[in-house]
């Protein structure tokens, strides 16, 4: 991200749509890794510490998990820049029962874009896309955006204090809600919403740029 020529670099400057899209996609990548680590889906020794957002983040060093996340991110980057994404969901599933035990939902709003979108996805058409906001978001400094992102990751980390312990072995899947006219790779299949019926829901913090807003919600089962 660069300031405009001739402008005072100390002043607030806003991310381009492309820069904002990259930032949101990167946020998703670290969110997936953080959830997998904090919820113990994989052993702690399978993660490596890296510095990001002024925090120590844990990312998976397991080859299969890394390859899966890399495949998701390569497609997500394209969809984000094209303004095609309305939602990303990380689903944690019990290997024993096949039931969804936790569902982390990230809703994406795109500012200043007229919308005539139908919600399709890599997952269901049964859940509509979040409509883009009509108002333009106020400009923010990079430090302000990073502070908001830090707050979300701190909340994800603190979630272990109220989320029930995951019983038995679990696995995860990532669902992406994209526009109906999106180019979808062959290896991406349709999925149901993996909703948790009568589950508890906790709304976490959000962050925004001049182009996007991301809201975070976790749903979970109590009867386990």
From TrEMBL:
Family the UniProt entry places it in: Belongs to the MAD2 family.
UniProtKB keywords: Cell cycle, Cell division, Mitosis, Nucleus
Localization of this protein: Nucleus
A Gene Ontology biological process term: meiosis I spindle assembly checkpoint signaling
Name this protein carries in UniProt: The spindle assembly checkpoint protein mad2
Repressor as UniProt keyword: no
Primary localization: nucleus
């Amino acid at each position: 991200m660069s300031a405009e020529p001739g402008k005072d670099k100390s002043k607030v400057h806003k991310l381009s749509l492309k820069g904002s899209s990259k930032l949101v996609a990167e946020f998703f990548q670290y969110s997936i890794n953080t959830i997998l680590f904090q919820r113990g889906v994989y052993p702690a020794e399978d993660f490596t510490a890296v510095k990001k957002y002024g925090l120590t983040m844990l990312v998976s060093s397991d080859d299969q998990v890394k390859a899966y996340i890399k495949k998701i991110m390569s497609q997500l980057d394209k969809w984000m820049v094209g303004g095609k994404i309305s939602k990303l969901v990380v689903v944690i599933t019990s290997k024993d029962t096949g039931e969804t035990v936790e569902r982390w939902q990230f809703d994406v709003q795109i500012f200043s874009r007229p919308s005539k979108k139908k919600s399709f996805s890599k997952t269901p058409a049964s859940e509509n896309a979040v409509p883009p906001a009509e108002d333009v978001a106020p400009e923010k400094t990079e430090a302000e955006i990073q502070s908001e992102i830090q707050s979300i990751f701190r909340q994800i980390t603190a979630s272990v204090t109220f989320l029930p312990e995951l019983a038995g072995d679990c696995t995860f899947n990532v669902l992406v809600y994209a526009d109906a006219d999106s180019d979808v790779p062959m290896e991406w299949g349709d999925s149901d919403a993996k909703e948790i019926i009568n589950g508890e829901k906790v709304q976490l913090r959000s962050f925004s740029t001049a182009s996007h807003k991301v809201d975070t919600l976790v749903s979970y089962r109590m009867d386990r």
